[in-house]
């Protein structure tokens, strides 16, 4: 049974930064109701994040993305139809997919192939899962707005293939260091059927409009037992329920990175990953915005 890791570090404990971080380390998400830090280990678990627009999903995704890029031995794959939520990391990503279903499908097929290769390697070595000691890169697949690819753009066949690929990577990726972190602002059964929801080891419910949507994320019956994301005030952005497989939902407030802080982290990650500083924005981009 997975449980939330909420360590209480000594006052003198230092924060691991830069190349010492690993995707096998606990990822900092924010603080719980008692002001204690909330960490989760994502190398072997997938995370589903859902809630109404403006609740704070992208803020949480940003924390996880920053950890992924500051960690050594990761090749994050990003899918962001809005472009701007994860776009600042695009140059460092293994692949960055915008609002393009063909690109999304090609990318996920590639990830699936890597996953199949890793399973073949595990089988050949009589092993069942990849560990940090194997030195294999972790490929976090970070997806901001699942519903865009599964219900908004593309043909029915493309949407179905997209969902089948996500489902397969969520189901099999965790043993071979390919965790999926997926967000959606549409917590409804057509977007998150129970069979898909239940294979996400961690689920996060930001404010929802109804107790039913809250249950679609956390699991049936939690709203009735008092764990109801519809009770989170709209003004309390960043607050969410987190449930780990087999556990009980717990309220927490996600840490929030401002744009200038994200840019500072991108600069730092660029330096540690490429040994170069980040080039300034092209003049053409500035002209477009004028
Ligand atoms: N953890 C947080 N602490 C404080 N403020 C937050 C936090 N998370 C989000 N906010 C505020 O709420 C706004 C919306 O957050 P965010 O973009 O993350 O929501 P979202 O759920 O991703 O919305 P959408 O579905 O439209 O993308 C932010 O611009 C910020 O002002």
UniProtKB/TrEMBL annotation:
Q: Specify the protein name.
A: Cell division protein FtsK
Q: Does the keyword tRNA processing apply?
A: no
Q: Name one GO molecular function term.
A: ATP binding
GO biological process terms on file: cell division
Start and end of every FtsK domain? 24-215
Residues the entry annotates as binding ATP: 51-58
Q: Report the source organism.
A: Actinomadura montaniterrae
Q: Quote the InterPro entries the UniProt record gives.
A: FtsK/SpoIIIE/SftA, FtsK_dom, P-loop_NTPase
- The answer to whether UniProt assigns keyword Metal-binding to this entry is no
Keywords on this record? ATP-binding, Cell cycle, Cell division, Nucleotide-binding
């Amino acid at each position: 049974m997975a449980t939330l890791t909420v360590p209480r570090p000594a006052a003198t404990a230092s924060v691991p930064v830069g190349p010492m971080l690993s995707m096998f380390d606990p990822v900092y998400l924010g603080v719980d109701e008692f002001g204690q830090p909330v960490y989760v280990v994502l190398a072997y678990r997938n995370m589903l994040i859902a809630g109404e627009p403006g609740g704070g999903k992208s803020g949480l995704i940003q924390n996880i993305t920053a950890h992924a890029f500051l960690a050594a031995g990761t090749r994050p794959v990003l899918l962001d139809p809005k472009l701007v939520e994860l776009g600042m990391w695009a140059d460092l990503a293994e692949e960055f997919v915008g609002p393009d279903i063909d690109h999304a499908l090609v990318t996920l097929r590639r990830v699936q192939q890597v996953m199949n290769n890793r399973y073949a390697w595990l089988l050949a070595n009589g092993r069942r899962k990849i560990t940090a000691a194997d030195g294999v890169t972790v490929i976090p697949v970070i997806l901001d707005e699942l519903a865009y690819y599964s219900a908004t753009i593309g043909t029915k066949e493309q949407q179905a293939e997209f969902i089948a690929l996500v489902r397969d990577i969520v189901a099999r990726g965790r043993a071979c260091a390919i965790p999926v972190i997926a967000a959606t602002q549409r917590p409804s059964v057509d977007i998150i059927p129970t069979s898909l929801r239940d294979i996400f080891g961690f689920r996060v419910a930001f404010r929802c409009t109804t107790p039913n949507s809250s249950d679609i994320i956390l699991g049936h019956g939690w709203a009735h037992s008092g764990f109801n994301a519809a009770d989170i005030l709209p003004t309390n952005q960043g607050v969410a329920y987190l449930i780990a497989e087999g556990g009980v939902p717990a309220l927490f407030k996600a840490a929030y990175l401002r744009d200038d802080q994200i840019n500072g982290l991108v600069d730092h990650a660029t330096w540690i990953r490429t040994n170069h500083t980040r080039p300034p924005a092209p003049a053409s981009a500035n002209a477009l915005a004028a």
